[in-house]
Every structure is written in structure tokens, then in C-alpha cells.
């Protein structure tokens, strides 16, 4: 039985963004300017909230069945596994997703993009991972959309993911992208970290195994949360 | 096996679509023992303008200093309004262990997400008139002149705790 973690690992260099990243203009007035205070992890940080089946229903993972009709767009299956850095599945953890509709429009007062709303698509879902850390959403492939970060700025198609994991310290919000999207190389958010492999891990892969014949293409997106520092088995040498 | 944690990305301006269902501004039902408190505050950017698209999440122990106790989850989420305001009604947490057999002063852990943050801000709320603050191992790591940014202030019956992202009173944020 794994020991209660005493601490979660620090990020590998280049794999997590800094707060200030001027190519993403909104960071300039929102990033801390004072040095962060390094926080030794205590029980506060190594424990975290638990969410249950009572609050998350199986239907919450199907974004195509939330209204009377079928949403417009290409139906897809987005599935994957939530693991920790030691490769262990993170079971029973809450995954929240949200996304634009197939035309690249959010049903949100702030979104004024001149693209059609879809009365049959809200773009909000959630799931609890199973015992193997797996989740699965049925949805519509989101559209790309313009934003005002810089001239002719367009966000690549993406799905927002919010994951809790076992501890306050494992909380993660990220975005999943789609393979072959030509907008990725120009997107400041995608390019917020120097490590190219870390960026590429934000891109889902087309997945033949979860593709349903005559119905929907499958995309796989595995998510890795911070893992506990391994307790040394013994003092070597 | 050794994997790298997935790169964090911003919640963006449309976080409300996915994160509103779990808004929890009242953490403690009536039968949860403890001193009732209300915490209110605003999130302000480097120009002092309200941040109207932030999600403030808190994590706390119960009145006895126990995390995840039966009947009290200890999780809260409040999305800021047009004036950058968030609010929680909860109970004052008890003291929880620090690292070396010490006890920490009562505190609430805070994760803040918003457009313009590529990863969450991590901070803490401490309580005013709390003798244990003087010996708290985490507060001791914070430069004395900035400690007050982590300590809520009494404002009528409520506690006020503001988040200044930048500026003279910039809130202390942690590298967790």
C-alpha cells in the first residue's frame, strides 16, 4: 500500500509556464511581480477534496445529449487516462471540461465572435475517472476562433480540462489540442513553455481503437498530474 | 516510471461554462461545528481594475484541524463578479500539523485561476487577532513587510481578504 505522500515533485525544467509571458498579453497586468515564496508542502498541500458519484452522473460526460436536438458538427470521442508522474492511475478524480461549439463560439456573454450559436450545445461536461484513471467524453469537435491578443490571432481548436487529483498540490487546469492543427505554431498559449516535448503532450492523438464505426472519431488525451516523491527504498552505497 | 506532469494552461475567459456547476460559496451546513465566518474580497489587476473572470478555490480543515472530515468537505469555489468580488461562508479551521511536528496557525489554502494566468496562483488566508500567527512556520518564510497581505481583516461581521495581483500591496503568492 503506497505511503501517504510527504511531498509532490517539482516540475521538470521548461515544462511549466511562468506567470509572465508577454506574447500572451493578458499576463502583463496579472502576473505577480514580486518573487514567489517557496512553500514547503504540509498536510494542507498534500491533502485535497474528494468528489463523489452523487454529484457526477454518467450522462454528464456526453456533451451531445444535453438538449432536445443533436448539436451541429463532427461527433468525437475524447478519452484518456489520468496518471501521476510515477505512472500510477489516478482513480475517482474529478475531470471538468468546457469548449466552443463547432463554429468556434461559446454561449457566454463575453464571446462576441460573429459565428452561430448552437441551441443544442452548451459545451460543458464532467466525469470521474474509473479505477484505472480512465475518463471518456462524447462531444463535438470544437471550432477555432479569433481573439484579440495580436493581429489576426486565432486560437487553435481546443478543449479546456480541469482536474483535481488527490491533493491541493495536484490541481491542474490545461487545454487539449488536436493533431495537425496549423494554428498551434502561432498560438502563445500553446507556446508558453520552452520544452517542445511538453508542448506536444498537450496535443491529443487520433485513436483508432476508440473510434466508433459509422459514428465518431476517437481522440486520446492522457493527463499526468504531479506525483509523490518516491520514498527511497534504502540508502544505496 | 517517470513521466512529466502535463503543462498547465489558462482557464481562459469562458471558465464559467465548465466551472459554474461546482460553485460552492457556503461550505458548512448548519450542523457542522465551528465558528461561523464570512470571507469576502476582490481580485484586482496591476491597474487596480477588478478581475471579473477569476475562479477562487479554497481548501481547509474543519474546526478540529482535520482535512476531509465526514460531513465537511472543506472545498469552496467562488467565481468573481463584475466588480472582481468573491465570497465564502464557512467555519474557521483548526490548527493542522506543519512539517516538523509543529502546528500551523489556522489558515485556508487558495488556488486562483483566471484568464491571463497560465497556471494557478497559490496563496493562503490567515486570520486576524490570531496568536498562533506569530509562530506559524509558513508565515515565517514571508518577508515581514508582506505578511499582512495573507491576513484577512475584520470588516463589520465579515472578514475581508483582497487579492492584489501587482502593485504596492501585491499579495504574497507561493511556489508550491
Question: Can you put this structure into words, describing what you see?
Answer:
The complex is a heterodimer of chains A (237) and B (176). Chain A has a single domain, classed as Sandwich (Protocatechuate 3,4-Dioxygenase, subunit A), CATH 2.60.130. Chain A is 4% helix and 24% strand. In chain A, β8 and β9 form a beta hairpin. Chain A is globular, with a radius of gyration of 19 Å. The model of chain A has no long low-confidence stretch (mean pLDDT 94). By secondary structure, chain B is an all-beta fold. Chain B has one helix and ten strands; from the N terminus they run αββββββββββ. In chain B, strands 1, 4, 7, 8 and 9 form a five-stranded mixed β-sheet that branches. Chain B has a four-stranded antiparallel β-sheet with strand order 3-2-5-6. Chain B starts with 14 loop residues before the first helix and ends with a strand. The relative contact order of chain B is 0.21. Chains A and B meet through β1, α1, β3, β4 and β9 of A and α1, β5 and β10 of B.
Question: Could you list some keywords that capture this structure?
Answer:
heterodimer, A: 237 residues, mainly beta, Protocatechuate 3,4-Dioxygenase, subunit A, 2 helices, 24% strand, B: 176 residues, 5-stranded mixed beta sheet, 4-stranded antiparallel beta sheet, 10 strands, 3% helix, 29% strand
